[in-house]
Specification:
Two copies of one chain form a homodimer. Chain A has 203 residues and is an all-alpha fold. Chain A is built from ten helices and no strands. Chain A is globular and about 60 Å long. Chains A and B meet through helix 1, helix 6, helix 7, helix 8 and helix 9 of A and helix 1, helix 6, helix 7, helix 8 and helix 9 of B. Chain A binds a DNA duplex (30 and 30 nucleotides) through helix 1 and helix 3.
Chain lengths: 203, 203
DNA sequence: GGCAGTTTTGTCCATTCGGTCAAGATTTTA
DNA sequence: TAAAATCTTGACCGAATGGACAAAACTGCC
C-alpha cells in the first residue's frame, strides 16, 4: 500500500524524510544513476519500508518534479507590469539567485531533467512554462516600447537571467574550484549581477 | 587486450565509432545512468567487441573527458591582452556560443560531470582551469584599470559568459520548448549576446 | 492487558549491469 | 594460399538493481 495523502504523524514524517533524501540523491546523480538503496539509506530506513510509502522509484521522482515546477515558476509570476521596470527585473534576478543559494538541489534536479531531454516535463514546458514566459516577455516588450529599459530580446533576456543565476547552483563545484575556498561566490554574484543588469537595462 | 594508440585501419575506425557513440550516450544520461549495451548498440557493435578496444566503461569516459577539457579551454586561451578589449571579449563570447551550437554533446557531458561534483575533474579544475581563469581575469582587470571597459568582477564576468552561452546547449530542450519550433535559438542568441555584452562592457 | 491497525524489515526474485572467456570469423602477411 | 595476427561475438559470471511478500514489531485504543 502507498499513500496519496499522508495522514498519521509517522506518515507525514516519513514522507518528508523520503522526499528530502530523494532530492539529495536525485539532484546529485540524476534519475537513472540514483538507486533506491541510496535513497533509503539517506532517509534512514530500509528499502522495503520506503516502498511502503511510495509505489516506485519513478513515483518519488515525479512527486519531486511536480512540486518543483510550481516553485520554480513562482518568482517569474511576481514580475509586476505596473511596477518600475528596473526594480521588477532586478528583483526577479535577486529572487532567482536566492533560489540558487537556498535550493541548489532543486536547481540541479531540474537541470538533470532538462539535460536528459525533459522526458517527464516536456509537455509542461511547452504549455505552462511557454505561456508564462510569453506573457512576461510581452510585459518586457511593452517596457521597451515605452523606452523604460534598453531594447533587448525579451525571451533571451529571460534565458540570460535563468542561466546566470542557476549557474551558481548547478556549477557550484566549478565556481568554488575557480574562486578558491575563501571567496563567497553568492555574495559576489549578487553584486556582480546587480551591476550587470544595471548596465544592461539602462537606456 | 586494449589499445593505448590505435594503429590499424579497423582500430582507428572503431575507436572513433566508440568514442562518438559514448559521447552521444554519456552526454544525454551522464556516466552512471549510461550502459555499455547502449553505447555498443549506438556504435554498431557487440559489447564484448567494444571491450576489446577499451578496458572499461570508465576508461571510455575518462578518454572523452581528457580530450574535452583541452578543447573547452582553448577559446579562453585565445583572449589576447594586446588586442582591443571589446573585440577580444566579444570574440570569446561568439567562440563559446559557436561551441555550444557545434558541440552541444560535449557541453552536456561537461555539465553532467560538474553537476555530479566533478569526481574525475576536480583536481584539473582547481589547478589548470583556475590558473587559466586567474590569468585572464588579470588581463580583464588591467583593461578595467585602464578604463577600457566597464568595472565588473572579472571572474564573475567569465562565469556569466560561460553560463549564458552554454545554456543554449545544456538547456536546448527548454529553450526550444519556450521559443517554439519556428525560431532559430542560436541565431537569435548571437544577436542578443552581442547586444548584452556591448551594453555591459561599455564604459 | 489485549486486540486491530499500522509500520518495519529479512528474505527473496527476475532483470540488468559491467566485464570475462574461449571459440570462431576475418583480415593481413609472407 | 596458408599461416599468423587481428577482429568479433555467443555464452556466461558475480554483483547490483527495482521491487514483492509475508512475518514480525510497534502503535493507539478499549
Amino acid at each position: 500500500m502507498s499513500f496519496q495523502e499522508p495522514r498519521t504523524r509517522i506518515q507525514i514524517k516519513n514522507h518528508r524524510a523520503i522526499l528530502d533524501a530523494a532530492l539529495e540523491v536525485f539532484s546529485q546523480l540524476g534519475f537513472g544513476a540514483a538507486t533506491l538503496d541510496q535513497i533509503a539509506k539517506q532517509a534512514g530506513m530500509s528499502k522495503p519500508n520506503l516502498l511502503y510509502y511510495f509505489p516506485s522509484k519513478e513515483a518519488i521522482y515525479l512527486r519531486l518534479l511536480s512540486e518543483l515546477l510550481e516553485t520554480w515558476l513562482d518568482p517569474l509570476k511576481e514580475i509586476d507590469p505596473a511596477g518600475d521596470p528596473h526594480d521588477e527585473i532586478r528583483k526577479y534576478v535577486r529572487g532567482k539567485l536566492s533560489m540558487s543559494r537556498e535550493y541548489p538541489r532543486e536547481s540541479r534536479l531540474f537541470a538533470h531533467e532538462i539535460m536528459q531531454g525533459a522526458p517527464h516535463l516536456l509537455e509542461k514546458l511547452q504549455s505552462d512554462l511557454r505561456q508564462m514566459v510569453d506573457e512576461k516577455a510581452a510585459v518586457i516588450d511593452a517596457w521597451i516600447a515605452q523606452g523604460k529599459i534598453a531594447p533587448l530580446d525579451a525571451h533571451h533576456l529571460i534565458f540570460s537571467i535563468w542561466s546566470m543565476t542557476q549557474h551558481y547552483a548547478d556549477f557550484a563545484v566549478q565556481v568554488s574550484a575557480v574562486l578558491g575556498p575563501d571567496r563567497d561566490a553568492f555574495a559576489e554574484a549578487e553584486a556582480h549581477l546587480d551591476a550587470v543588469f544595471g548596465r544592461m537595462l539602462r537606456v
